[in-house]
Amino acid sequence: MYVFINWTYVSVAEKAELTRAEWVQQLLQEDKQSEQAAQLTIENCLPEYAEYLAALEAEKLSVDDFDKLNRDLLSVRIAIPELGKVVAFKLPRRTPDTNKLPVSLAVRAYLLNTFKGEWTGNLFDQQPQRLVLAGPQGLQDFVLRLTDCCGVLGQPMPVDFWQRPVKMAELREDQHLRDFLNACRYNQADPGEQEKFRSLLAYWLGTGASADIDGPITIATAMRLGME
Hints:
- Helix 9 (174-186) runs antiparallel to helix 10.
- The longest helix is centred in the first third of the chain and has 21 residues, at 10-30.
- The protein is globular, with a radius of gyration of 19 Å.
- The protein has 11 helices and 5 strands.
- It has helices at 10-30, 35-39, 42-45, 47-57, 68-72, 103-114, 139-152, 159-163, 174-186, 191-201, 211-224; strands at 2-9, 73-80, 85-90, 132-135, 167-170.
């Protein structure tokens, strides 16, 4: 069973926002009435980061509310097509005054409750696991970061999760994903199907900038590669 995971880091989103602003400026220099530039809003390109900035401005979220590791974990999106489930956990909606778990612990609770017993067996048991975590390049690093985030909050992930670890399928780098999806679009005879592939990349600023946008890209790529 494939479990697709995407994430957003505040640090990556901040850099992506600089890139977005540069794109908009270049387009406006070429055409002051550019429709494309008008569509490249922070809300369209970086929805979680836009929500994060709004929360900061409203003084509902402070960088001091979380430790350095947990405050960089802006959002995590988990999709399990076989179970028909998609969930997302976002930092602006999980401030201390909401009495909700931080993003890292919410992800931990979801994985452990949804797949009870998956990581609690004998560490040296080599029996095949039934789960495969799938995601873009950087998935293995994300798993380690998630483990650290949970550990500093006193609720570590089971050691089997990060020492064995669970099986993973990591996609290739951003440029390859862009080329792959563009090639998929080229090979579609139906204009509607072509538009589906085009729209996946319309506001994409690279892996880790927005899990909301990365998620459909990851699943579309994985499905074309037979990961069902």
